[in-house]
């Protein structure tokens, strides 16, 4: 983790402008082409891995507001919702920095541990990406709860995938703190996510 001198950073003026907004967020929902991952199981963990790998490739998405400072993490973990039998959910934190072959068994084990603990507490929540899924609806827009004071964690939400014109499309919502990120950074995330889905499929097909 390093401290960013926002007075010298190109986004310094933008950060100063947005940081005192009651709701300093900007969000997009994009139908992403995930045809390459159709039929892959566990489906959610494939999506999660591709999304967090994409997010960690973009420095602006690794930045957080910590007190009076902006810090940039070298790598951020995810915290995602896991459905429970009583129709509530718990949180599961995952390290997505490892190769996928190592990630998958590790992630499946962590999910089972999270279900057993059934907790919504998070370790070091400032550094995390907050990830959730709404697999029952193919939404085109999404509003999320706003904390007070606002946090600066990117929020990633998957919707119900669907077929259209021969493509398997996933509604993918990304919400960020506008003092730290702009639309160009969000567009990079979506492009990298789609690329990661294709590359992951190729690696699995080749057995690497």
Write up this protein.
Strands 2, 5, 6, 7, 8, 9 and 10 form a 7-stranded mixed beta sheet that branches. A 3-stranded antiparallel beta sheet has the order 1-4-3, with no helix packed on it. 30% of the residues lie in helices and 26% in strands. It has a single domain (2-206), classed as 2-Layer Sandwich (Chloramphenicol Acetyltransferase), CATH 3.30.559. The chain is built from 4 helices and 10 strands; from the N terminus they run E-H-E-H-E-E-E-E-H-E-E-E-E-H. The protein is an alpha+beta fold and 208 residues long.
The quaternary structure here is: single chain
Q: Could you tell me how far the N terminus lies from the C terminus, measured between alpha carbons in angstroms?
A: 31 Å
- Give the proportion of residues in helices: 25-40%
What is the CATH first-level class name? Answer: Alpha Beta
Mean pLDDT: 95
Indicate the low-confidence ranges by residue numbers.
none
Structural class: alpha+beta
Task: Give the amount of beta strand, in percent.
Answer: 25-35%
Which descriptors would you attach to this protein?
single chain; 208 residues; alpha+beta; Chloramphenicol Acetyltransferase; 7-stranded mixed sheet; 3-stranded antiparallel sheet; 10 strands
Q: TL;DR?
A:
By secondary structure, the chain is α+β, with helices and mostly antiparallel strands. It has 4 helices and 10 strands; from the N terminus they run E-H-E-H-E-E-E-E-H-E-E-E-E-H. Helix 2 crosses helix 4.
